[in-house]
Specification:
single chain; alpha+beta; 2 domains; five-stranded antiparallel β-sheet; 15 helices; elongated
């Protein structure tokens, strides 16, 4: 029976970029690393426990505490359960253990001594990697995970005051690893590595890269909003938040700003899409409701439903008046959130965007 662990592994596969090699290095080495990682996740999906990824503790905790956890979520507060978070992080980190080990090795390798066939590291650097890996959850399983790496073809040999790492069945894969791990430092470097995004090594991903990993209906929704913004002559700059991982805890977060202020954006992965319209102040949210009541009353009820209720006691909680309804929302984001939008939702969102950026309305803010 599929578990949340299976869902998270499938998420990794969905988040991997289409194979587009960097022109700065040989294609074959990149292809070999790409194929090795896809086979890794595919094998893990078929038998997670063989890769020391265990779903039992997390699933058991959810089953035992389902009623309490559901109640906490339904209270519309900032949801937090330390034990649930620890158990979830344990299996998420187990999934990414193999990729993280090779990433650390690739970053620590002596670039001038590496070849397409092996990495070369100083022994002290290698021992630092091992100590860093010990900080991940589930260290009691790490020896077996290193054995699993060995069975997957990873060869580690210390000689001549160097630690050499190779992939036996993919002899040129270390060249592909170097492309990603020896790229220029940036906040997107690790994200590009985990996604095997060779074409963006050393660079910044774009909306196109996000669309590649989303289902057709989500791509359609994003294209619709892009076209609507273009039709309104809104010149936007995209802002992509880097991801620290590609398991199911992570998703694309892209915002589009005009004149320094966010106007719309989306959060998405292979399972869900959330289109956001930004108002940048609680007052503008309330004023928009008043405007809709006068000029587009058929949109008012839909508009009122698109703001997530927040009843937490944090200092950013704000009240908005949506005509006859008062809601408390997050005053940090000041946005409406349209989850998994259908065609009518998109049409409504397009009308709201047009209203927000019409000269008569926007000039008042």
């Amino acid at each position: 029976m599929p578990t949340l662990v299976h869902r998270s592994i499938r998420h990794c596969l969905a988040m991997i970029a289409p194979f587009r090699p960097s022109i700065l290095s040989g294609r074959e080495g990149q292809r070999q690393l790409y194929d090795w990682f896809r086979a890794l996740y595919q094998g893990m999906l078929e038998n997670p426990e063989d890769y020391l990824v265990f779903s039992g503790p997390y699933e058991a905790y959810l089953a035992k505490n389902k009623q309490r956890l559901d109640a906490m979520r339904n209270e519309k507060n900032h949801f937090s359960d330390a034990r649930e978070s620890t158990l979830r992080n344990t299996f998420q980190q187990a999934i990414q253990f193999y990729a993280l080990f090779l990433y650390e090795a690739g970053c620590a390798a002596l670039q001038e001594e590496c070849t397409p066939f092996q990495l070369s590291l100083l022994p002290d650097s290698y021992r630092q990697i091992l100590r860093k890996m010990e900080k991940l959850h589930g260290p009691q399983h790490h020896p077996a995970r290193y054995e699993k790496l060995k069975s997957l073809g990873v060869q580690i040999e210390e000689r001549d005051n160097r630690v050499h790492i190779r992939l036996a069945d993919h002899p040129q894969a270390m060249e592909g690893l170097s492309v990603l791990c020896q790229a220029a430092e940036s906040k997107y470097k690790k994200m590009n590595y985990l996604r095997l995004d060779f074409s963006n090594a050393g660079g910044i991903p774009s909306t196109r890269d996000a669309l590649d990993s989303l289902p057709p209906e989500y791509r359609h929704a994003i294209h619709f909003m892009q076209e609507k913004a273009a039709a309104l002559n809104l010149i936007t700059k995209e802002k992509i938040r880097p991801m620290r991982g590609i398991t199911s805890d992570f998703e694309w977060k892209i915002e589009y700003a005009c004149k320094g202020k966010n106007i719309w954006g989306f959060y998405g992965d292979d399972q869900s899409l959330k289109i956001c319209l930004y108002f940048n102040s609680p007052d503008k949210i309330s004023r928009t409701a008043d405007m809709l009541e006068k000029e587009c009353p058929h949109l008012l009820s839909w508009y009122q439903d698109q703001f997530a209720l927040r009843e937490c006691k944090c200092r950013y909680n704000r009240a908005v008046h949506l005509c006859n309804i008062k809601k408390r929302i997050c005053g940090l984001s000041n946005r409406m959130e349209i989850l998994n939008p259908g065609e009518q939702d998109l049409e409504n969102a397009g009308q709201i965007l047009s209203l927000l950026h019409s000269p008569g309305f926007s000039n008042n803010f």
